[in-house]
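Quick start: read one record
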Amino acid sequence: ASQNGLIGITLNCHWFVPFSNDTLDHQASQRALDFMFGWFMQPLTTGNYPETMQSLLGSRLPNFTGAIQATYWILTELTTSIAIFIIF
């Protein structure tokens, strides 16, 4: 049945900024955003997961058909965190 409705999504997200101007901290910040925000939003807007997630998780990520797309979206950002690159 078709009702001509709109489907949207509101995401609550922690935002990340680099600890310093170091390239590794910038990459850590982007990686954190990819896993916090991109994990949910990028498949809806581009049809695939962020490159960071694809390179780290590979075939463990599900495939999308392209039929999934949000009509509109809202981001609620209440907290900003600092990201720093650390080798364990």
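The mean pLDDT is 83.
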